[in-house]
């Protein structure tokens, strides 16, 4: 530790240094990782709260790093976002997830198509080729656009002007669902929802967590009740994420939420798990 004047000390922080080195190493390794096929996707089912049947799945990307093992998206998505690699990486995720959904839907067409949810980062949202790339991926796979849901975080759309909304509007007109992810964390103006081309609200995990406390905070209950009734009056579906217990699922079902996702149903996993869940449903 070296003196920084007076009685203040600037301490060396070896952990922070190590983190910075790893961050730098991961950032420079990203492009080659994409070429080498080190990314893979896990799928987490989305379930109807009413009858427990499978509604679809969310695609969640992971990086199988040759030295560090499997890394979650929180470790590398911000880096990819920063360097712009998120554009080709995001395109790969979309293509792969849509191909997978097409495969699921080929093998069981009845009961309505299984939905596939794909996350879009702010940089992808701003990219001029978003609509063309998405149309291209859908056409080449043959997946019905109505089976695709793109998830955009609430914060990415705060203060969004028409230029930013236009591509989302075009996709929505083709039948693609747009979901507002992490809803309730971004202080967005609820009245603004009417302006956005979204058809699904994904209620942030923090709300689900508050449904776990005993007794449940009556204010939290009122807030969720309010969001659900507003969403339904705007003809938006409500998905809840982070459901870890049956009690939470029951509470959220009673509050009128439509679909749910969380460890209570299944952790993110390999694509054939979704396949077998749906087949099990069908019998
Ligand atoms: P998200 O979109 O909010 O995804 C939900 C996260 O919650 C996932 O974390 C999921 O594994 C986790 N989760 C699901 N159920 C439960 C539960 O019951 N309890 C708890 N505690 N957690 C649960 P994951 O996979 O680590 O992803 C983190 C974030 O990374 C995602 O948050 C999303 O914002 C981003 N992400 C993932 N894949 C992609 C991608 O392909 N593109 C982009 N742009 N972002 C992605
Ligand atoms: Ca998401
Ligand atoms: Ca979310
Ligand atoms: Ca989140």
From TrEMBL:
Signal peptide: none annotated. Residues 23-282 form the EAL domain. It comes from the Bacteria. This is GGDEF domain-containing protein. It comes from Streptomyces lavendofoliae.
């Amino acid at each position: 530790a070296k003196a920084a004047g007076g009685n203040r000390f600037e301490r060396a922080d070896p952990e922070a240094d190590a983190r910075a080195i790893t961050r730098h190493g991961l950032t420079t390794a990203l492009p080659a990782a994409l070429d080498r096929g080190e990314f893979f996707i896990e799928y987490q089912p989305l379930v109807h709260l009413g009858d427990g049947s499978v509604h679809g799945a969310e695609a969640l990307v992971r990086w199988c790093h040759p030295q560090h093992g499997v890394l979650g998206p929180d470790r590398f998505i911000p880096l990819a976002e920063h360097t712009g690699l998120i554009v080709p990486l995001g395109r790969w995720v979309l293509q792969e997830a849509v191909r997978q959904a097409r495969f699921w839907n080929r093998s069981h067409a009845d009961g309505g198509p299984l939905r596939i949810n794909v996350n879009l980062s702010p940089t992808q949202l701003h990219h001029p080729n978003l609509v063309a790339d998405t149309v291209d991926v859908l056409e080449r796979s043959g997946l019905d656009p109505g089976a695709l849901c793109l998830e955009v975080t609430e914060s990415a759309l705060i203060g969004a002007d028409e230029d930013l909304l236009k591509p989302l509007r075009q996709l929505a007109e083709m039948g693609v669902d747009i979901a507002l992810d992490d809803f309730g964390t971004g202080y967005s103006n609820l009245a603004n929802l009417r302006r956005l081309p979204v058809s699904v609200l994904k209620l942030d995990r923090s709300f689900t967590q508050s449904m776990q406390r005993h007794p449940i905070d009556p204010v939290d209950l009122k807030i969720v009740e309010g969001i659900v009734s507003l969403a339904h009056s705007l003809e938006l579906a409500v998905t809840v994420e982070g459901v870890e217990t049956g009690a939470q699922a029951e509470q959220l079902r009673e509050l009128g939420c439509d679909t749910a996702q969380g460890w209570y149903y299944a952790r993110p996993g390999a694509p054939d798990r979704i396949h077998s869940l749906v087949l099990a449903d069908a019998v």
